[in-house]
Design goal:
By secondary structure, this protein is mainly alpha-helical. It has two helices and no strands.
Length: 52
């Protein structure tokens, strides 16, 4: 039989994992909502920046 400390640790671990999953889903939803694309974060080439 588990003691109180081990039970409490399991509960807090479960809560932490649940919060991490919720934050990950929020982040992914926000990235999709603002249409975040990897190309947007790339630096423009020298040719593009001179002509702009």
């Amino acid at each position: 039989m588990e003691n109180k400390r081990q039970k409490r640790q399991k509960i807090w671990t479960t809560i932490g994992v649940a919060i991490a999953i919720v934050l990950l889903l929020y982040w992914l939803t926000l990235a999709i909502w603002i249409d975040d694309e990897p190309e947007a974060s790339a630096l423009p080439t020298t040719e593009q920046s001179v002509n702009s």
